[in-house]
């Protein structure tokens, strides 16, 4: 099927104006059928154009009552008859296997069926006829025929439900990819009101009364508070009268938000506690921001989709303090630990692109790294706030929404609004940060000046830290400096024991350390008296480790010593540091050191858990328990995990919830100590993600039969995307290199050819998960390099090769140093 190019879209936008869509889905039919009636007007001298339609079967198509030939390469050719036109198309729709387009799910608990439709970003034409481009919005009227006892939620309010047909009120300003709905015997868990917007949250029927849905009222409250905060801080009312939130098990993304509808993957229900509450609040705030950015104003073309995602990510953390009652610094600390590393990694891979980069087709946009579009984009927006002030930043957002909504905008429009509200010409800033790939590095030079490469216009925080009597680093002062050139004089920096550049993480930059600061921070294990400054330090050391400038065993030991020091970072920090340390031990360090490093990490996490208990920051005890499970190495540590599963020796305040139980079983499975019966009970204990966790556990078992079975299931076309990803996630386990060595060649000979025929998102995900990541060697790099190149599979292989080169370099340098713990 032909991809729509930007030139074709511009020509079509100049040829027609689309007034309305009437779209009907018959979910009671098998196969599902759709009928679309589009009213549009020809403009200027245009004589022909085309509509997008590529379902398995087109039943009929007419333009102004005259039958049309079948679509050619997914395009329905249209010729002008008069100034106004009516296009009607009927088609059969196919079911998706990856949670995009039209998908269905049969609940194993009660047999109930559920259907969801998601046209984003470019799969609308697979199920209904449309002019599928961002700048051709129109008024949509949706109606859906449902099986008995089903309901349907979509953009717009339900105006009737008669004779099995659910009809929705017209919604203006909808883009073809905005069309989405969920249908099935859902249960409404809670309702709320945010100004003029009515909110509801729903889940599938079989989850009623389970622990999984106990937090849905809190989730709805987060959405209500997010909407209220956006209305107050941006100054633009919510543009939609209803906002329905639906949790579903079959979704390609973690969540999506359309015009008045949020759909969330059920895996967000599988955890409990303060950590999950904060994560879910951030996700909820992100999706709610799309009511304005993406809904009220969307991109003019696909190269500016980043605007919606980056602004929503930035605003979600800015709003987190108001939503959850935490401090703004705590919210950005969460971001620094959980999100910022994704941007650093994505900006250091062969697939890196500028935040705003030209794309000629929608497919190219779909394949852009999310670490760039979402996370780096948000970091850059936060950096702008530090440069021009939050008031000017939000005033610019308000001007952008007011001037271009309802409708579409582009990068130049938004930067122009920020220039006006700040009184500064930001054109060059936009070129440096948004049109240029790569992340600048910043460090303190030996002459005491702050240097950056390449030079970018930014304002950074500079923390000066001194050691106290106990060896802990306390901040003496926090300076700010505006940088533009490669070298900037900032007096007084050389007097401190440690200088932390980009303190408070204002900017999107790589933090480097001068020799004295690096030694001081290493000795102190980054234990500074400010959580956000500590997150900046740890991100800096992780980048040094992945660049082979800090040995992996030294990094793991720093984490071990940090756990022993007490006064722990917040939950996200503990979780990320332990995860990084386990990765450092398993994939970056000399394999001969792996067991000792893991054993030391597990012992440190166990002692910290016993010491901190419930007295530490919210969620830390659970994060430590996850770390204990992930790093358990020797008999006594594995025996402790088995005791926890039996309810014995569980620390006070720690609950072995289904997700934590699954993580413990994964650790035991990797060492051949998980019973089949325990793994088989996971779906019963956790009806949301238990089946995926079972697949991970089965794949981790150290037997030839288990690996062969997992490999076959991951590549089988009959395995759902989520279960296939589970098997792939558990397949490569550090320490099982001998067992899995033969699968390196099979990856290239079997896996890649079979994945080539899968939908692009699924293909790229499985290409990365099944890559022989534990077989770190020149042979693997050489074999993989032959398959690196274009397309989603070749791009993912190239990225994996780049990471493996760094791991091999880290191991090689460590070997030359002859280091020991």
Q: What does the average pLDDT come to?
A: 93
Rg, alpha carbons: 27 Å
Beta content comes to 15-25%
Global outline? globular
Indicate the structural class: alpha+beta
Largest sheet: 9 strands, mixed
What is the CA–CA distance across the termini? 57 Å
Count of runs of 4 or more consecutive helical residues: 29
Helix content: 40-55%
**Oligomeric status:** single chain
- Low-confidence parts: none
Quantity of strands, as a count:
29
Structure summary:
The protein has 821 residues and is α+β, with helices and mostly antiparallel strands.
3D architecture notes:
- The protein is an alpha+beta fold and 821 residues long.
- Helix content is 44%, strand content 20%.
- It has 29 helices and 29 strands.
- Strands 1, 2, 4, 5, 7, 10, 12, 13 and 14 form a nine-stranded mixed β-sheet that branches. The protein has a five-stranded mixed β-sheet with strand order 16-17-18-20-19, covered by helices on one side.
- Strand 8 (101-106) and strand 9 (113-118) form a beta hairpin.
- It is globular, with a radius of gyration of 27 Å.
- The model has no long low-confidence stretch (mean pLDDT 93).
What features would you highlight for this structure?
five-stranded mixed β-sheet, alpha+beta, single chain, 821 residues
What's the structural blueprint in terms of helices and strands?
Elements: H1 6-13, E1 16-26, E2 33-42, E3 48-52, E4 57-63, E5 66-67, E6 75-79, E7 84-92, E8 101-106, E9 113-118, E10 138-145, E11 151-154, E12 158-162, E13 165-168, E14 171-174, E15 180-184, E16 186-194, E17 197-204, H2 216-234, E18 242-248, E19 255-258, E20 261-265, H3 274-289, E21 297-299, H4 305-324, H5 328-338, H6 340-346, H7 362-366, H8 370-388, H9 390-404, E22 407-409, H10 411-422, H11 427-434, E23 441-444, E24 450-453, E25 458-467, E26 473-483, E27 487-488, E28 498-501, E29 510-511, H12 515-524, H13 531-546, H14 552-565, H15 571-588, H16 594-612, H17 620-631, H18 635-645, H19 658-670, H20 676-680, H21 682-685, H22 690-700, H23 704-715, H24 721-731, H25 737-740, H26 743-755, H27 760-769, H28 778-785, H29 791-817
Parallel strand pairs: 1-10, 17-18, 18-20, 21-22, 23-29
Antiparallel strand pairs: 1-2, 2-7, 3-6, 4-5, 4-7, 8-9, 9-15, 10-13, 10-14, 11-15, 12-13, 16-17, 19-20, 23-24, 24-27, 25-26, 25-28
């Amino acid at each position: 099927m032909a991809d729509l190019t930007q030139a074709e879209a511009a020509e079509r936008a100049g040829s027609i104006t689309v007034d309305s869509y009437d779209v009907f889905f018959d979910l009671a039919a098998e196969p599902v059928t759709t009928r679309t009636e589009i009213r549009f007007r020809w403009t200027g001298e245009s004589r022909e154009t085309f509509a997008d339609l590529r379902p398995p079967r087109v039943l009929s198509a007419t333009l102004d009552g005259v039958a049309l030939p079948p679509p050619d390469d997914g395009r329905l050719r249209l010729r002008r008859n008069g100034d106004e036109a009516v296009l009607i198309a009927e088609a059969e729709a196919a079911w998706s296997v990856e949670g995009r387009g039209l998908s269905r799910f049969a609940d194993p608990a009660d047999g109930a069926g559920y259907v969801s439709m998601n046209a984003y970003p470019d799969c609308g034409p697979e199920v209904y006829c449309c002019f599928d481009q961002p700048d051709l919005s129109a008024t949509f009227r949706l109606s859906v025929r449902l099986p008995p006892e089903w309901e349907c939620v979509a953009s717009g309010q339900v105006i009737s439900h008669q004779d099995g047909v659910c009809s929705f009120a017209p919604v203006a300003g909808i883009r073809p990819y905005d069309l989405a709905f969920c249908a099935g015997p859902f249960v409404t868990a809670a309702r709320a009101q945010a100004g003029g917007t009515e909110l509801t949250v729903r889940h599938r029927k079989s989850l009623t009364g389970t622990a999984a849905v106990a937090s849905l009222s809190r989730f709805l409250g987060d959405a209500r508070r997010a909407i209220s905060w956006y209305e107050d801080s941006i100054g633009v009312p919510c543009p939609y009268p209803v906002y329905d939130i639906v949790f579903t098990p079959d979704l390609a993304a973690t969540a999506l938000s359309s015009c008045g509808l949020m759909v969330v993957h059920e895996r967000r229900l599988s955890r409990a506690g303060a950590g999950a509450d904060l994560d879910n609040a951030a996700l909820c705030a992100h999706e709610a921001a799309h009511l304005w950015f993406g809904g009220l104003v969307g991109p003019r073309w696909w190269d500016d989709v980043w605007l919606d995602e980056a602004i929503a990510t930035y605003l979600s953390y800015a709003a987190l303090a108001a939503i959850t009652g935490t401090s703004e610094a705590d919210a950005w600390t969460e971001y620094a630990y959980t999100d910022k590393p994704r941007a650093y990694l994505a900006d250091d891979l062969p697939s890196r692109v500028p935040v705003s980069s030209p794309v000629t087709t929608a497919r190219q946009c779909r394949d852009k790294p999310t670490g760039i579009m979402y996370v780096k984009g948000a970091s850059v927006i936060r950096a702008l706030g530090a440069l021009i002030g939050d008031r000017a930043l939000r005033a610019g957002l308000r001007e952008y929404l007011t001037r271009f909504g309802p409708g579409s905008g582009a990068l130049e429009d938004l930067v122009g609004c920020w220039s006006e509200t700040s009184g500064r010409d930001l054109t060059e800033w936009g070129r440096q940060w948004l049109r240029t790939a790569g992340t600048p590095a910043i460090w303190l030079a030996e002459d005491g000046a702050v240097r950056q490469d390449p030079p970018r216009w930014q304002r950074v925080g500079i923390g000066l830290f001194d050691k106290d009597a106990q060896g802990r680093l306390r901040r003496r002062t926090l300076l700010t400096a505006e940088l533009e050139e490669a070298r900037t004089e900032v007096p007084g920096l050389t007097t401190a024991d440690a200088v932390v550049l980009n303190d408070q993480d204002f900017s999107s930059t790589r933090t480097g350390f001068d020799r004295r600061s690096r030694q001081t921070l290493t000795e102190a294990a980054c234990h500074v008296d400010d959580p956000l400054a500590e997150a900046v330090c740890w991100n800096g050391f992780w980048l040094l480790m992945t660049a082979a400038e800090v040995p992996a065993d030294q990094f793991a030991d720093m984490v071990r010593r940090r756990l022993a020091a007490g006064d722990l970072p917040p939950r996200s920090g503990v979780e990320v540091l332990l995860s990084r340390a386990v990765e450092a031990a398993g994939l970056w360090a000399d394999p001969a050191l792996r067991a000792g490093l893991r054993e030391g990490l597990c012992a440190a996490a166990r002692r910290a858990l016993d010491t901190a208990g419930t007295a530490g920051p919210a969620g830390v005890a659970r994060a430590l328990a996850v770390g204990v499970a992930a790093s358990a190495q020797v008999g006594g540590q594995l025996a402790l995990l088995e005791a926890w599963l039996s309810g014995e020796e569980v620390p006070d305040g720690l609950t072995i919830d289904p997700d934590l139980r699954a993580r413990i079983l994964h650790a035991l499975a990797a060492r051949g100590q998980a019973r089949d019966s325990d793994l088989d009970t996971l779906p019963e204990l956790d009806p949301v993600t238990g089946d995926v966790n079972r697949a991970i556990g089965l794949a981790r078992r150290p037997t030839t039969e288990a690996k062969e079975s997992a490999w076959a299931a991951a590549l089988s076309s009959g395995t759902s995307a989520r279960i296939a990803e589970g098997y792939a996630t558990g397949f490569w386990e550090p320490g099982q290199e001998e067992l899995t060595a033969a699968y390196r060649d099979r990856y290239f000979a079997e896996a890649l050819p079979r994945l080539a025929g899968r939908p692009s998102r699924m293909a790229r995900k499985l290409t990365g998960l099944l890559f022989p990541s534990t077989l770190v060697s020149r042979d693997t790099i050489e074999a993989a390099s032959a398959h690196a190149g274009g397309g989603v599979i070749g791009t993912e292989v190239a990225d994996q090769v780049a990471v493996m080169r760094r791991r091999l370099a880290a191991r090689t340098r460590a070997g030359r140093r002859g280091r020991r713990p």
